[in-house]
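Example record for the data management plan.
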Amino acid sequence: MVARMHDSTSPRKGRIGRPRSVEADRAILDATRAALVDLGWGKLTMGDVAARAGVAKTTLYRRWANKNELVVDAVAVLFDELELPDRGCLKDDIEGVVLQFGALLARPETKTALMAVVAESTTDCALRERIRSAIVDRQKRLVVLGRERAQKRGELPPDSPGPEGSQAAAEAIGLIFDVIAGAILHRTLVSSEPVDPAWAHRFSTMLLTGLVGLG
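Corresponding structural encoding:
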């Protein structure tokens, strides 16, 4: 199973001094996303964010080493809003989270921030890894929960025992996440089409039954 990773905005190990302010962190991350919408990645600076958040620039650098880390965490907290609803069956649960994901990506702050970090990560391996750990791996929790719930209902078979079973489960979780996230990202950010109830229904049908189910 893929365990939920630690919160990327949690205090760094070994940090001393006064405890971090949750309110200050929230103001900084909100200001980061607003600045991205207004200025774009290229013009955004730590100074811009500090001024908008009403904090000293040194406060930012005590929390984030650079702009890349700050922007990824500003995006990550948005995706932490996603929850898997319990609608009684796997298909309906999938539809529910798909609609949530689509609504999140329709927000200008999410769209701008995500596209900015993804574009920048094409030439920055460290940024790519931070996106993977802070956003992708953390949101696989939704797939883990969905599979466990469906297995308890008898909608999916249990995982096979032993290391091979654990490996197969991890691979399945990764593939399911890639398919769902990839489809929604493409529809919203590339095709600029809405993720509405009708599309979510067709997508979840295809996911569970294959192309035959769309007939």
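Summary line stored alongside the record: The mean pLDDT is 88.
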